[in-house]
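Teaching note: in complex prediction, the entire set of molecules is handled at once rather than each chain in isolation. The prompt given to students was simply: 'Predict the structure of this complex.' The entities are:
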Amino acid sequence: MTIDNATVTKIANLARIRVEEGEKAKYAAQIGGIMQWIEQLNAVNTDGVEPLASVMDITLPLRRDVVTDGDKQPEILANAPEATSGFFAVPKIVE
Amino acid sequence: MMTDLTDLTITEALSALKAKKFSATELAKAHIAQVEAGRHLNAYITETPEVALKQAAESDKRIAAGQMGKLEGIPLAIKDLYCTKGIQTTASSAILKGFVPTYESTVSQKLLDAGSVTLGKVSCDEFAMGSSNTTSAYGNVISPWKRNNGDNRDLVPGGSSGGSVAALAARMCMGATGTDTGGSIRQPAAFTGTVGIKPTYGRCSRWGIVAFASSLDQAGPFARTVEDCALMLEVMSGHDPKDSTSAPLPVPDFTKALTGDMKGLKVGIPKEYRLDGTPAEILKSWDDGIEWLKDAGAEIVDVSLPHTQYALPAYYIIAPAECSSNLARYDGVRYGPRVEGANLRDMYELTRAKGFGAEVKRRIMIGTYVLSAGYYDAYYIKAQKIRRLITNDFLEAYKKCDVLLTPATPSAAFAIGENEDDPVKMYLNDVFTVTVNLAGLPGMSVPCGLSADGLPLGLQIIGKPWDEATVLRTGHVIERAANFVAKPQAILKKAA
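The expected output is the structure of the full assembly:
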């Protein structure tokens, strides 16, 4: 699998990471190299194998749908780069 | 003359504190001085001497009242991936610079509840992604060890938990916390002559620990002896309702497991770990370990883990996929420095471009790619199927044995800057450790000797799920047989 600059652009967009034009070739080569190394997995026959997402052999526990915590607005906002009137603040998105 | 306080083991310090041979405050002061003396190693990102002295004073009160906790007065270093209330937590990333959690991670809270003293937050690879501690936004961590062959280059402490082990080996703490996603406890332990154990996935709560790859991440301790490690693990373990993957199982008395008895124990030797190109000294250390266990009464069994070679490439799909999802939260809205942009999307992209380092960006992009439309089945599902095969390999092997013995790393520590030209070369450091994370098993590295260049080597013991006790028991036997007493040059220089 080779990765071209257009693919890097697409991935960077999806990942919301600005990649400058001049950096794209470097990322393409590095990611392409890693993906090429990963291709060796194709040598393994995985027909009929159930994918393993978690090693925990337990069912996730259920609990009552009630409030167990809260009233922590100042703590939650404490590290925000910008907060106003008890909310996180972001650049305007609606004109 | 009293022994250097910073050279004691945790177990020795606890009995001396109990006997009132010195106070917790004296112990804390000795370590704070050592932290200052070792600043050139860049192990700590944030030193907290005032916190340590306050906690030590409280320990002294409890000791006087005869109410000692399991780790009363013991000065520890906390990996900067653990959220610590009121103390900056960066995950070694610029994107979390200045982040001061308003809560404490479950595991670090358990350590505090046991009476421990926090010396500060130690560096790691950025978001725990690395094997050399050279990806931290706060600079490289330098190993206190040097080669003895005239090569004076600074060496890596291993990674990702490099600050933890550099501090521990340089006597800048008595124990440290780590996390292990693909080898981040065991590889640094092997590189620095320290002991580190990654318990079974689910043994320690992940709540409040900055997430990298949630299905692989586990917390674990570092110490200078197996006994100390067992004691720390006992304190750190246990069910936590706040982590739905934490296991509702009782925590065994791990220190009691160290019986020295190997009779009837079957130790598996996986033939696939005898890789082409593995240095002779690594293979020799493995053979030594086999002999030691045999001498102690264990039975050696040959086993096969046929899918071993596919573990690393499968890991480099699964871990980046999970990381791309976990790290989506760093967008300049809730924490960390923001880079202003023309609009919201611009702000996200610029904040993340500036805040993340090269390796983290690479892994986020790989993860995004393998999860993107059209590639999900070919990469992500394929990797999860291989994860199943790797796990089945272990389960099959455990029908024939109780624990596995392997080398911890394919080489001793390397110089800073080596292995940087090709990401895959760096990834190969974890070839012996990554399988254990994929299968969720407990694994430990114990120092077993020195390389020809005078650098520590480690052996890895891999256990059955939830059987850390046997892993520790086996490690303890190796520790005694190896009698590893070498100390890093940074310490010897100070003594001279």
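Point out the following to students. The radius of gyration of chain B is 21 Å. Chain B has 16 helices and eleven strands.
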